[in-house]
UniProtKB/TrEMBL annotation, chain A:
InterPro entries: ATPase_NBD, Gcp-like_dom, KAE1/TsaD, TsaD. The keyword Isomerase does not apply. GO terms for molecular function: tRNA N(6)-L-threonylcarbamoyladenine synthase activity. This is tRNA N6-adenosine threonylcarbamoyltransferase. Its cofactor is Fe(2+). Residues 26-309 form the Gcp-like domain. Belongs to the KAE1 / TsaD family. The keyword Lyase does not apply. It catalyses: L-threonylcarbamoyladenylate + adenosine(37) in tRNA = N(6)-L-threonylcarbamoyladenosine(37) in tRNA + AMP + H(+). Its EC number is 2.3.1.234. Substrate binds at V136, V137, S138, G139, G140, D169, G182, D186, N275. It comes from Ureibacillus aquaedulcis.
From TrEMBL, chain B:
Its EC number is 2.3.1.234. InterPro entries: ATPase_NBD, Gcp-like_dom, T6A_TsaB. This is tRNA (Adenosine(37)-N6)-threonylcarbamoyltransferase complex dimerization subunit type 1 TsaB. It is an enzyme of class 2 (transferase). Keywords: Acyltransferase, Transferase. Residues 27-225 form the Gcp-like domain. NCBIfam families: T6A_YeaZ. Transmembrane segments: none annotated. It comes from Ureibacillus aquaedulcis. Pfam families: TsaD. One of its GO terms (molecular function) is tRNA N(6)-L-threonylcarbamoyladenine synthase activity. It comes from the Bacteria.
Amino acid sequence: MNDQYILAIETSCDETAAAIILNGREIISNVVASQIESQKRFGGVVPEVASRHHVEQITMIIEETLEKANMQPSELTAVAVTEGPGLVGALLIGINAAKAFAFAHSLPLIPVHHIAGHIYANELVEPMQFPLLALVVSGGHTELVFMKEHGSFEVIGETRDDAAGEAYDKVARVLNMPYPGGPHIDRLAHEAEEGVEFPRAWLEENSYDFSFSGLKSAVINYKHNMDQRGEEIDPQKVAKGFQDSVVEVLTTKTLRAARQYQVKQVIAAGGVSANKGLRTSLEQAFEEAKISFVVPPLKLCTDNAAMIGAAAAHMYNAGVRGNLAMNGLPGKELKSWI
Amino acid sequence: MIWLGIETSNSPLSIAIVKDGQIVEEIVQNEKLTHSVTVMPTIEELFRKANLNPADLDAIAVSEGPGSYTGLRIGVTIAKTLAWTLKKPLVGVSSLQVLAANGQGFAGVICSLFDARRQNVYAAAYDGETMQPVIQDHHNSIGGLLEQLQLLNTPVLFIGLDAVNFKEVITAQLGNQAIFASTSLALPRGSKLIELAQKQSLPSVEEVHNFVPKYHRITEAEANWIKDQKKGQ
């Protein structure tokens, strides 16, 4: 079999990223231009600003990716790109660049779901074992996905309101921490012995869905009450109380789902899986449960194009192809490709 | 010399291929379709009809703004990616000038404008003979634009799909000074874009990376941020 080199492009939010992946497993080059320095002025991602940065960066990032790999377009097998979900204006830059590049070099296109990409980031660490359960947690997503084999996805639980990462950012704002708030809360939480007691949203008994807006409101109310009493809040204790609640709910539901679906492996994916508190809790739980648990290295947890290339490799082999009429799909559903 | 011209600055779409000064293929449409869906298939179709390969191109021209932010970005992203990866020069032309060029030959000034909502416009005015700018591309209230045009004291040809949205206020202010171009001139044309691009000197291929749309407005978030910074001083 010939080696398969996929050029992957990802621009769904505030990272302009490109990568070249060999046979779905090996990163040949992986370039990410983050907009955090620009976006933190606004305390969050402003879509129009994100789109403008993507146009500035896109060709430079693809060029750097090819140069680092020391490759010519003619050596590539296909071009993969995130089709959605994400910010539509941001997605359109990656998609139109991918289409123009594919047209210029007569390469096939592969449209990739952003969450499938996050899950397949794990293939760049070690081969996935099926059946498998993936916990996807990021600024835009909180989902439990069951996979009985490659290319098969069943969303068994998802957030009904805020994504976990979104709740982190909002609570960070209450504590006057800069954007993005997740790493700051994680750090503060580790500095406290005891946390403020906040509620856990378990929802219905058998539900694998999540809800974080109640917890977020509880933190805001706590701060408000303390302010009214003229008392200072202890940011470490608030951070720990908040993080303990998020981590306990995520860990408990993931463990219960892993047992019910009798999976061989559990993987964590998405930006929030970089969180130390969450990683430690999941590692412990699955070590005790004797179920294999994998989480990608930090730089593959946050948005990147390597993960898009890893998913695209399997899609390419399954015969999935896009075309020059591809559009950005901001609300794209995670569907099986087999 | 083979040129590809891409014009997606507003809802109409035009793509042209010009070879040695002659139009080989051109499509002009006003179907309110999504540029992201239509532009690349249209380019592919025109190349196929013209029996050309992407590598046969010598230069690319794109409407660089002002206009719809998303429309501009789709055109510029495609133009930029093709130019970079095929190692061809990329020339940007004002989308207002491309539109105004439809009225070239008019004895007076030609004013092209795009509706920017809330009684605002992106607009420019050009000498009808030379096509030199009399009023540069800018963002303005329709009232502010008309005051400038009135002072020119010469007939003004209004051109573009959005000009009719302001017909009443234009006529009220300018009276007989205002003339409205026929609808057959209301859509921008890729061939006009290329014609204007050919008058510029070709930039180096290395400059492609730095090419960005000319929005003529900073984002609302940035404007507010700058305001806050000034307050803090």
